[in-house]
Write a structure and sequence with these properties.
With about 230 residues, the chain is α+β, with helices and mostly antiparallel strands. It has seven helices and eight strands; from the N terminus they run H-E-H-E-H-E-H-E-E-E-H-E-E-H-H. A hairpin with a 2-residue loop joins strand 4 and strand 5.
Length: about 230
């Protein structure tokens, strides 16, 4: 009887590990459209923010959420003036900032990225410009590409009042200009960030041939180079 219980426990652990590995293959989504059957969103040429922002000197932080953090992270890692980018979770507490829980949509988190940048080289407005034109589609509600759920929502988590005003002003500017058929659904939320598990960090750089990366994220890097050639490191 004791051996049977031990085997059951071992089997349960194996199932748990298998579940984690399966989740890790598609940024929280079991839906990966076969390559060639769908196209990743095109980058869009839009005007830069019109409202000027005064930023403190020295390294600053910006936090954006725009679907799977793998591709958003990779986009900003390629921008001059960005010194570091982390994938993580924003919008809920540290205690439940766990990939399994976030992917299952049982928390209020969004997959997000924390961007460390030098405002003397790249401003918050520049980052907003790239975020809305290249990193994601801001008109998709609680989804992005093949991923569905509030954890993939488009959101901004300002670090200070200046960032909050800049984000609000730019969203209003873009909606008025009518670049997209549908309105922007990006939310502006309270500042928070909790780093994701180690295997999510620098995911594109470590897994350049991953099917999800090839289909959904590499086109973003191409669009960054096409639309912001002077911003690419």
């Amino acid at each position: 009887m004791k051996q049977r219980n031990l085997n059951r426990k071992r089997f349960a652990r194996l199932l748990s590990v298998a579940a984690i590995l399966s989740l890790a293959t598609a940024c929280g989504s079991d839906i990966v459209t076969p390559i060639g059957s769908a196209h990743a969103a095109e980058g869009i040429r839009i005007a830069a923010p019109a409202t000027r922002i005064v930023e403190p000197k020295g390294q600053q932080v910006a936090i954006f959420a725009g679907g799977c953090f793998w591709g958003v992270e990779a986009v900003f890692e390629g921008v001059k003036g960005v010194t570091r980018v982390e994938s993580g979770y924003s919008g809920d507490t540290k205690s439940n900032a766990d990939y399994d829980l976030v992917s299952a949509a049982v928390t209020k988190h969004a997959e997000s990225v924390r961007i460390y940048y030098n405002p003397a080289i790249v401003s918050y407005n520049d980052l907003l410009h790239i975020f809305f034109s290249v990193a994601h589609d801001p008109t998709q509600l609680n989804r992005q590409g093949p991923d569905r759920g509030k954890q993939y929502r488009t959101a901004i988590f300002p670090a200070n009042t200046a960032q909050r005003q800049a984000a609000r002003g730019y969203i209003a500017q873009l909606n008025k200009a009518g670049y997209w058929k549908n309105p922007i659904v990006t939310t502006i939320e309270a500042f928070s960030f909790f780093p994701a598990e180690t295997y999510h960090q620098d995911f594109m750089a470590k897994n350049p041939r991953h099917p999800y990366i090839v289909q959904w994220d590499k086109p973003k890097i191409a669009n960054l180079s096409r639309l912001f050639p002077n911003r690419v490191r």
